[in-house]
Give the backbone structure.
Amino acid sequence: MQNPQEVYLKKWLETASPVEIVIALYEKMESLLQDIIDLYEKEGENRDTKKEVELANRVSEILYYLKGTLDMKRGGEVAKDLNQFYGICITQLSRAMAEKNLELYKDLLKAIREMRDAWEEVKKRTAGGQAG
């Protein structure tokens, strides 16, 4: 028997618009980055660095996925801008991990939240995100 959560997710993915899926990915990145920030704030130097790396790697996977799904020919300036944004985020994440820098993680979380808010606006303007 399948996990009910997996069944729900599969059904949701079959019916969700592309914009809704992008928003969900942004929300996941926000959650993962907040978990990293919480590790720093609650545990400081004694934090579980393995957990930090696992969480950061998941954020990285999402960023690379989003970057890889851009249609640079049809997407025009928007795709170009998003490509640049994802590249900057990947660099920022790499720096945060290498330098173990809480402020860089916080800055990245802020940027991801702002872009998610922009996607929420797109969803509202396209009647639920159904427009391609």
